[in-house]
Amino acid sequence: MPSDLRPVESALVECRHCAPHFAKTATGHAPRPIVHLHHAARIVIASQAPGARAHASGVPFRDPSGVRLRDWMGLDQQTFFAPGVVAVVPMGFCFPGQDAEGNDLRPPAICAEMWQERVLAALPAVRLTLVIGAVAQRQRLGRRGPMTETVRNWRDHAPGVVPLPHPSWRNTPWLKRNPWFDAELLPALRQRVAEVLAD
Ligand code: SF4
């Protein structure tokens, strides 16, 4: 691993900046940065924050959402987690916790301020960024409109960036309402993923 990523990754794994904030959430959990990075990664997954499952396992996208995301990308699990393929750079590296109704909270804004630029600067091989969900799209792309419009206009960001909905099974009705996603965006996404991994 080149020296650029090593110190950033080591410091990120140890980060406990949000401990007082997380202690006040309904989940009352401690910070656990979920770090999946590699200096030669070709693809960045720019998501919102890990959920409770990733917080428990320590591994991002090893859940039904990850299965769907890999299907969208045309990758199997082994390739997805292989060194040099994917780096997960969310707005918040820790599970933000839940409110009293069990809804996931937004990631603390300080996380992106502290880490995003440093991490991305240490990933020089990235050729493709997948920006997942409305919150990440607002932060990364400056898009204020509805997520559907941002994703529908995916060609505006090609070839380096592709906005996507969250691959949660909760979005299955959205996928049914928007057949162009499956018919037009996914074939282009799979082709782009194959290109950047073959490059
Ligand atoms: S969310 Fe980010 S800033 Fe907060 S403790 Fe986790 S890694 Fe640190």
UniProtKB/TrEMBL annotation:
Domain Uracil-DNA glycosylase-like: 34-190
Domain of life: Bacteria
Protein name: Uracil-DNA glycosylase family protein
Naturally occurring in which organism (per UniProt): Pontivivens ytuae
Upper taxonomic lineage: Bacteria, Pseudomonadati, Pseudomonadota, Alphaproteobacteria, Rhodobacterales
